[in-house]
Design goal:
Elements (H helix, E strand, L loop, with lengths): L1 E5 L2 E5 L6 E4 L8 H20 L6 H8 L8 H4 L2 H14 L8 H10 L13 H10 L3 E5 L4 H11 L7 E3 L12 H10 L6 E5 L2 H9 L3 E5 L3 H7 L6 E2 L5 H5 L3
Parallel strand pairs: 3-4, 3-6, 4-5, 6-7, 7-8
Antiparallel strand pairs: 1-2
């Protein structure tokens, strides 16, 4: 390993060129708040109505999803099952029957997906992915989101064609930060671990890379996020448009 400074940030890089890049989706490829704030609000309303509970707990459910906690929020870093468990805690605190909310929570978010606005996390995201493919990169997506919402986001951005594989949370196979999908990519595509790079905006993404023994680049658009991610990686960029400058020194 060696250290370089790229675009103002320190980057610990491998002595072998990167051949495959794994992207996170929310907060990395798309802007988080534009999509997930309205979707979460609608999903919470959906759950309240289906369970016939008081609208007065709406703010508590939103808080349980961590909508205002940035990259530390559960909705940003967790799975639907984890969000469901957090919702259950709120409902039980108010004496509401709320066992096994997994299916309802998934249903609520999936049915609310049209409320979200899909906005690319950087300008000319197609140009970036085209440049990566021109350089011979294999490109993957690993997200804790479901396949339906993931497909919607990729379709609206017009970037689905650039990904060699898209891995989503099916509720069966292990999700991030378990390194299952890193291992699957390595087995299928024959990469060495030091030829893969994870690019994501949460601690979950950084732990995913660490567990899979691959390098990681953090993505943080604010100082708070940068401070958090710098505890896990020496490379943190403001958005993924800076990625090609990092790759230039590898």
């Amino acid at each position: 390993m060696r250290n370089r400074t790229v675009n103002g940030f320190a980057a610990e890089v491998n002595d072998i060129s990167i051949r495959g890049i794994i992207f996170d989706k929310d907060g990395t490829l798309i802007k988080f708040d534009d999509f997930w704030r309205p979707v979460t609000e609608q999903a919470v309303t959906y759950i309240i109505r289906r369970l016939n509970v008081s609208e007065n707990i709406k703010n508590e459910l939103m808080a349980a999803a961590g909508i205002d906690e940035g990259i530390n929020g559960l909705i940003c870093r967790g799975t639907y099952a984890q969000v469901a468990a957090s919702f259950e805690s709120v409902l039980k605190k108010h004496g509401e029957a709320a066992d096994k909310l997994d299916a309802l929570t998934f249903e609520a978010f999936e049915s609310s997906r049209e409320c979200g606005k899909v906005v690319a996390a950087c300008e000319n995201i197609k140009g970036l992915l085209e440049e990566l493919k021109r350089r011979g990169m294999s490109i993957f997506l690993v997200t804790t989101d479901c396949s339906e919402i993931t497909e919607k986001c990729l379709d609206e951005l017009g970037i689905k064609e650039y990904f060699d594989e898209v891995y989503t949370d099916d509720g069966v196979l292990p999700s991030k930060p378990d390194p299952y999908y890193i291992n699957e990519i390595i087995k299928k595509y024959g990469f060495n671990r030091n030829e893969l790079l994870m690019v994501g905006d949460t601690v979950t993404d950084m732990e995913f890379a660490k567990n899979g023994k691959i390098s990681a680049v953090g993505v943080a658009g604010d100082c708070d996020g940068r401070r958090v991610l710098e505890n896990y990686t020496g490379a943190v960029v403001g958005n993924i448009s800076q990625l090609t400058k990092l790759l230039d020194v590898l």
